[in-house]
């Protein structure tokens, strides 16, 4: 699996320095402050070594304060402190700097328990009192296929869906803890809400003790991912976990039993019998997915140039195009009969719309390579589920919310190709006017802040499921 670093982007991610202030916060949270002799510690991806060096300095200072002889300190540095790093260059650089620390304190040379190895395949009979680290954040699409296969087979938290590389490091850490051990990790805050991190949250839920969250703070230079630190304590049996929003300087005690699905950090997640679930009276759905917008989305100039028939075109919009007043159209190779979607066969499409057919044939190779739904014809959209309910008035919002929810009203013929669209549910007395009022309410924005996944700065990503699960007071 060493070839995961063949991707230079991955290697660069693993060379990001952990700021000293965060290192100190992590060690303090772990209680790694005094009486450190005999406490076995592991950092299983030490990278540039900022955390490991801080551990060594604290260990030496603690031992010196306890008047422990120099020889004993050096001997036990090699017995109590362990580190693993896959990158060869980083490994030897960190080892040199640790030796420099030892020399600074005028201690005898240390026989380090450091391993230039892959932490996800490293084997040991040891268990650890403390495992602390900043695991590499590598997304699923950036992991090579062989590594994906090995990780899926080895780690329950990565067995389903598009996992992040750091999930496996967290699970590996839990497996190596002693019965009274603690795990402190600096991680992306999206692990609390990402759908593919559900198994990871399940693994953490029983003993997670404290979460320090840093929304909208840029902890790492050039990295927009929101950051969090958590403490997992095997001895912790409390009914509540402590959640601290370090950006807003607020603290909450969250009932552990509330942590299901996405973790929403609020003390107000108690079902009110007078509330109504948004999805019970409206439909919030993902928009159409052509799986090749470059072929289907066209401008007026393109329509004229390719002689695309106007009768097969509909106005196309996205939250971005509406925001910037960009005029676009979409080839719509379907019909509606009394709001029922009707498919056109290939021969009819070519005969009735030769201009559109000729245009799409220029993309035939890409169209055929799409991972489309079963029975989708070459000239149709790759996903067809959204089409069944589109032929009506609707609202459109972006999946990314920044400061407020921007809502756009669309007529029945307009086709949204990005974002989430909302329609009235058959049999419901609630109208789109009601839906707009609800989605623009301060209560919904507060809900977005709890359930949304941070993408950059003040921006939060939400899903159709999030919207459908929102509960509002009746009468809105």
Keywords:
S-adenosyl-L-methionine; Rossmann fold; alpha/beta; elongated; 24 strands; 9-stranded mixed β-sheet; about 475 residues; 4-stranded antiparallel β-sheet; restriction system; MethylTrfase_TaqI-like_dom; methyltransferase activity
Task: Give a brief rundown of this model.
The N and C termini lie far apart (55 Å). The longest helix has 17 residues, at 88-104.
The value of Rg in angstroms is: 27 Å
Instruction: Tell me the number of strands.
Output: 24
What is the CATH architecture assignment of the largest domain?
3-Layer(aba) Sandwich
Shape: elongated
Q: How many structural domains does the protein architecture include?
A: 3
Provide the residue-averaged pLDDT.
91
At the fold tier of CATH, the topology name of the largest domain is Rossmann fold
Segments where pLDDT lies below 50 for 5+ residues?
Answer: none
Oligomeric nature of the chains: single chain
